[in-house]
Amino acid sequence: MTRVWKVASYNNNGYLNASAFLNNASHASESWAVSPAINLADSKKAVLAFSHAINKLSDVSTMKDMMTVWASTDYTGDVSTATWKQLVVPNYPAGTSWTFVESGDIDLTEYCGNKVYIGFKYTSTDENSGGWEVDNFTIKGDGTPMVTPGKPDTPDTPDTPAGSNLVSNGDFEAWTNSLPNNWKSASSASNAKLSQSTDAHSGQYSVCVAGGAKNQRLAYKELTLKPGTYKMSFYTKAATADGAVVDYGYVKVVDGKISGGNDYIYAKKYDKLTNTEWTAISHEFTLAEKTTVALIIAVIKNPGKDLLVDDFSLTTADGGVVDGGSTEPDQPETSTTSTYTLVNQITDGTYVLVAKTDAGYLAASPLAATYNYGYLKNPVSVTESNGTVKVSDANAFTIKKVDGGYTIQDATGYYFMNGAYNSFSRSAELPASGHIWTITVNSDKTVSIKNNEKGKTIQYDTEFTSFGAYEEIKAILPFLYKK
């Protein structure tokens, strides 16, 4: 096998996946994923960083032999004719789950003044083949994020929560009375006919979820989750050559019941599947308060054909299970929750940015502490009541009147716009330019927050589930609520 790298899903995460485990067997392979040319001609210092996950390969020394990263200045399209130098990756995952870890900074200073190619090399044997996923590929030159040539200006892939798998039997190896253990909701969330399949992504079994004239759902037993951001990940494929379409998310359960259709919170990606290969799916959601949920994978009624599911996980860096099943100890609350009130005029103070969508009200989350650029991802679902919302103060921004408009900052720094991108940059110090915003309250009480220098207005994009700033008003203008 020579071609084992692929884009792992059809959604906008777009991370890379390599695995030589096919048809329940390992296969010997060597395969490369090589970046486009990265121009470091004007840089005096540069570092590479990414996040990665490795599964089915728990020996670190074996990982370091089989999953390696290389650099070349003379690559022309054929890895065998290029000169490659291996780079030292500071951090490797545990190798027993699909939990991502940060690679740590990898020094590229010796390549400054040149163009460089980064190669991810995957190898396996007939006895040993782990899975390797790579995400959040970043190169910084002189401390400034550099965009890979040819990469479209789309939101960065989500910051990946870390942590142990919060579900049991996500590999579908344990069955009782012809049903997979734990995969039955006490509510109406479970409505699909399930059966055991030997066509597995790993191990011996997967679960076959039967399709039908209506959407059919596979649901995990109810979990009461703490406030936090969660990532559900799994592998899926169509069970037949007819193909299948899958959606996924969760449903809120109260007193063992689902009150209505609005309690189903789906990703609405509608990934199209074939029966020729497994597709890796990942989806993040954020809970603003303790919530009982059933995790759901749905077979969409059009075409309503059977699909297979395997290697399911739920991870979190800041949440956890309240009642049983948690592999992580309870974490102390890191922020308070406050009431914020809808405004019709702007004064200095603390605000949350809220978009009204078909799925409900979503409050923007600041950039993760480890990032100083990007889109505002992982919005928090909030309940709007008579012009007020209750939300964690960790979601708050400080707005202050200055000459020419307003500044916007979070606990880490000031937000400004840089270059031609629709994402934000953040600086601990007041930037020299790009940081002044004009804020206008509209007749419907939404706000137009426009960057004075770039002429771009902050909006919530439902396709990318993130806040960005765009020249055209093509998405959802937010509301401002003040503490």
From TrEMBL:
Region (Disordered): 141-165
UniProt xrefs under InterPro entries: Galactose-bd-like_sf
Gene3D superfamilies: Galactose-binding domain-like
Stated name of the protein: CBM-cenC domain-containing protein
UniProt organism field: Leyella stercorea
